[in-house]
Amino acid sequence: MADGDAARGQKLFTRCSGCHTTTGENKAGPSLAGVFGRAAGKVDGARYSRAMASSNIVWDDVSIDAYLAGPTKFLPGTTMAIGVPNASDRADIIAYLRSLGPG
After folding, report:
1. CB neighbours (10 Å) of residue 2?
2. Which residues, other chains included, contact 43 with Cβ-Cβ below 8 Å and sequence gap of 6+?
3. DSSP 8-state symbol, 15
4. Phi and psi (nearest 5°) for 72?
5. Angle, to 10 degrees, between the axis of helix 87-99 and the axis of helix 61-69?
6. What would the pLDDT profile of 26-35 be if each residue is shown by its tens digit?
7. What angle (nearest 5°) sits at the alpha carbon of residue 62, between those of residues 85 and 70?
8. Can you give the pTM of this predicted structure?
9. Is 69:99 a contact under the CB 8 Å cutoff?
10. Cβ atoms < 10 Å from Cβ of 22
């Protein structure tokens, strides 16, 4: 995967901020602070679909990219339905999330 622009990714993350934070606070979706290396469906206090909670996904560049490209295609049964179709935008958002450090 090509390296993205974390600064641009932070700006693009506003698309995600209606449901997610990077501060540790859960909203409709879990906080994405420290998402890299974290098992999917495991943030305390966050609500997850059965599909997400029972998945064996560990978030990394590849899994996050595939999920953002098509959440319901990547994980049927997930409650996140909004994707990021543009590969460059995904790379930038991933670079931003990576800049926040590991889980």
Report:
1. 7
2. 26, 30, 31
3. G
4. -75, -25
5. 140
6. 999 999 999 9
7. 30
8. 0.93
9. no
10. 18
- Which residues is 102 bridged to in the sheet? 36
Instruction: Identify the burial level of 81 via C-beta atoms within 10 angstroms of its C-beta, where 0-12 means exposed, 13-18 middle and 19 or more buried.
Output: exposed
Encoding tokens for residue 67?
């999920």
Return d(Cα 98, Cα 72) in angstroms, integer: 23
For residues 85 and 69, is the Cβ–Cβ distance under 8 A? yes
Distance between CA 79 and CA 12 in Å, rounded?
21
With beta carbons less than 8 A apart as the criterion, state whether 58 and 35 touch: no
Instruction: With H, G, I as helix, E, B as strand and everything else as coil, classify residue 58.
Output: strand
* Length of the chain as a residue count: 103
Q: What is the sign of the dihedral through the CA atoms of 1, 94, 85 and 45? A: positive
- 41-62 tens-digit pLDDT: 999 999 999 999 999 999 999 9
